[in-house]
Amino acid sequence: MKSEDMWKFVRKAGVFFLAVSTGFAGLSQALFAQDAGRISVSGVLDSGVTMGAGAGDASRFYYGLEEYANLRLQARLRDRAIFYGALNFIAAAGYPAQSASAWGLYQEQEGLAPSSYVSGENYIAGMELERLYFRINGESLDFDGGLIRIPFGYGQVWGSSDFLNPKNPLFPDSRPRGVLGAGLSWHLPDETKLFFFGAAPKNPFAADGSGGLGGLSAERHWETFSVQALYAAESPRPGSAQGLHRAGLSVKADMILGWVFDMLYTANPETGASVDGLSAGAGFDYSFCDGKFIALAEYLYNGAASSTSINSGNVLGLSNENYLLTSLSYMLNDYTSFTASLASGFDDLSFTPMLSAEHDLFQGLTLSLSTQMPMDSDLFRGDGNRGELGPLPPGSGTGSFFNLNAKVKLRF
């Protein structure tokens, strides 16, 4: 079969797969309407205050207020099907509102619909659909379809193989975005699972299916060792004759230290094989003094065309090659904890130290305080060598010398 014919087949199969999952979603919602008395609601409410010192064109001093809520809904149909939904609500003023407006401008520049915010007298407000999907449970098969999270890999920090729902270690509280797709899990004996998945194109307006992807992963667990292998194929995007191929491997092992290795290689047939397509992380975590201290370190190699690079378009978007994140957490007691972290970029010698503290005032109510202080050579020497993790990254007109965030988190 020719390459073009193969991609046509993959594209049609992906469209059929998503159409079937959408049909299942409509059917399941109709069934849930008959069982509405079993709907459960939970969520999180964050009330935050942000202040800091701006760099570049940013204000020398900035502050802001933000009210954020994540509302989760769940409804069960007997023991075989579950409906899930999650909404994000936000009201912001000052610095958070300015950041949200900048994100909307970026979306417009990328040809996407801008974020929709409504302006009040002294705030902006918005709502985002975070999750909307259903799950059908079988004896050995589970099927998920809708707006879901499709995670991959065991990486705790950089998430090289988690290319569909990337995370950003500089913003550990942010929730990874979902994708519109479907997944079929096949549970085999001996702690083995096969997972088949498909997702709509990254560009939501690609009506021809260009950029859609599908693939499979295989996972096996032993007592102290787990391994996951991944393959995904993406159909050609406009202007490209061939699609992308991704292959990944993730391993974790509990041997005195908790070891993890996570990698994903992105192959573009048009550019040929190159180490630039590799994103690979490796690290460990270790608890000591009866669990009061937890140390973590994870290194990342970031290829220029990899899943974690700025060219991939994900939220992490790193532009250099070598990174390391280290952290040390201390549990003072069952209610209070402190964490010190350092994100390091070795290619341009830039760093972002981070400190945080949390205290559970009572069950369901947590007070937290966090701060970041970006540093690079230009900060100390004024030599113009601006670093990616420094106060004013190259190519950016605004940045921050210091950022402080205080939150009250209510879980319900």
Index terms:
globular, mainly beta, 412 residues
Ends apart, CA distance between termini: 55 Å
Task: Determine the structural class based on helices, strands and strand pairing.
Answer: mainly beta
> What is the mean predicted local confidence, pLDDT?
87
> Helix and strand string, N-terminal first?
HEEEHEEEEEEEEEEEEEEEHE
Query: Considering DSSP H and I runs of 4 or more, what fraction of the residues is helical?
Result: 10-25%
Total beta-strand segments: 19
**What is the general shape?**
globular
Which regions have little confidence, pLDDT < 50, spanning 5+ residues? 12-28, 30-37, 105-114
Largest sheet: 18 strands, antiparallel, barrel
Write the layout of secondary structure elements.
Layout: H1 3-32, E1 39-56, E2 62-77, E3 81-94, H2 95-109, E4 117-119, E5 124-137, E6 141-148, E7 179-188, E8 192-199, E9 213-221, E10 225-234, E11 244-255, E12 257-267, E13 278-288, E14 293-302, E15 322-331, E16 336-345, E17 350-362, E18 365-372, H3 377-381, E19 398-411
Antiparallel strand pairs: 1-2, 1-19, 2-3, 3-5, 4-5, 5-6, 6-7, 7-8, 8-9, 9-10, 10-11, 11-12, 12-13, 13-14, 14-15, 15-16, 16-17, 17-18, 18-19
